[in-house]
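Entry 12.
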Amino acid sequence: QVQLVESGGGSVQAGGSLRLSCVASGYGISSYCMAWFRQYPGKEREGVARIGRASNTAGYADSVKGRFTISRDRTKSLLYLQMNSLKPEDTAMYYCAATDCSVYKWWLLVAGDYKEWGQGTQVTVSS
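Predicted 3D structure (tokens):
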């Protein structure tokens, strides 16, 4: 059974930075493809960034491209999201997610394609 636990959320002023972490545990987790999603109140979860087994498989939503960086340490089963130049519109609950890399087009960041989820960590950016 896979378990994902996020941390690192908090409150920051616009222009500031936060680093989210996700500790992953469970059989075979190092071979999973992983992602960060966020959710605004009353809205569906939207994909923010994703990464496969290799670091050159990172990809981003247009809204965060150039500001956020996803990375992972497969040896320690850790996933990160470095968030720089934060904006008030980045305020949301952020979730770590994992899926089998054999899932068709996992890189498209469709929430329904990810079967493992963390409990979320809140990020609040004030203007």
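Annotation: The radius of gyration is 13 Å. The CA atoms of residues 30 and 74 lie 5 Å apart.
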